[in-house]
Amino acid sequence: MKSNPSLLSATNAKLSEGPSIGQAGIGGPPPTDKLIGVDWQDHREPSSIVECQDFECLCNELQGIYRGANDCMLSNGQFLRKAIRKEYRTLTDDERTRFHNAINRLKMSKVYDHFHALHYHYSYNSGIHMGPVFAPWHREFIKRYEIALREIDPTIALPYWDTTMDQILPDPKDSIMWTADFMGSVDNNGYLNSGPFASWITLEVANKFVHTDSEIEEKKVPIKKLGNNRIRRNLGVPDGNRLIADLNITRILTNNNIYLIFGDEQFKILNGSCSSLNWLEGYDDTFWLDMTLESIHALVHQYVGGMDDNHELGDMAEFQTAVGDPVFFLLHGFIDFIFEMWRQTHQYTDQLYEYEPRPRCDVKNCGSKYLFCDNSKNQKHCGVKIKIVMTAEMNALNGLAKEVV
């Protein structure tokens, strides 16, 4: 059995990363993971710029001059612009080259491997997969990755991979996506042998997953090293074309089923087995798999990573190794785009409800007989009136008073 790969955040502000990788409190793997040595490997955290949550912060971190709105002049005289995320194949040759160069520089600096390790650790207890946190967590994750790239080259943005354009081909493996000018081609064993990332050696990780821990502890499943090799892809093996189609997107954008929105049905399906790709190993009902954002994304992970005749998985097919392949971020750019389309078409707050302002002292009694304006401090602030506690003595006196009356 293999671990489950189903891969199936302040103002002017920075969103801090919280505890360090592997530190208690973030669902990191136990100390036994050091048998593989993910934490011992040479990877470097990105600078604090990735924590930025607005354009002004980004401008200041890049030592630019912020002049309001999205107006920022960098020290070299160029203007910093809002990132425009284009479809990967629509980039000009120069834009694509600059994008590839920035990724390679991020890899050489070891910051890319930090993103890999971060996803590996946060994935360990399935906290960022198989449920409603999937979309927002990965939104912040790829935002940080994009900013790390823009720190290298402020002119670029993270493109997305619209898989529907490959899905309509008789055989998506024939797409220019898998050529030396784009994401590269592979040899007969599935290892990348051309393209901008052909020389990469991926981060070494373990096959550990929360559902395999007991089996590993009982030595039913050995701890296995993954990664530490060239990027590997088994495109479309063995399940063929499972790329996202227009129908999948339409279903998601029009979906109002609460179980599917929150990924509950998908969790029931995928979490019921310790098998890594249970539908590749005999799960036939793909109805639910085509209905949730996370599940259609997982099918693309399967397509790119795949499984060879020896049941060896490509990098994209397991959450532990997926980030080692830069295709990961192109796919998640598209998933985030679909998520944003869903969010924009479900703005029910405009019609169903709105919030009144918080109680304030410029309104008499803060707007309620149960509130008061506290003037005792430097800054006025509305407070709630206290309850009257009747002690036994007070009750007795109250009773006596009634008798006297």
UniProtKB/TrEMBL annotation:
Residues 325-336 form the Tyrosinase copper-binding domain. PROSITE patterns: TYROSINASE_2. Signal peptide: none annotated. One of its GO terms (molecular function) is metal ion binding. InterPro entries: Di-copper_centre_dom_sf, Tyrosinase/Hemocyanin, Tyrosinase_Cu-bd. Keywords: Copper, Metal-binding. Gene3D superfamilies: Di-copper center containing domain from catechol oxidase. PANTHER family: TYROSINASE FAMILY MEMBER (PTHR11474), TYROSINASE-LIKE PROTEIN TYR-1-RELATED (PTHR11474:SF126). This is Tyrosinase copper-binding domain-containing protein.
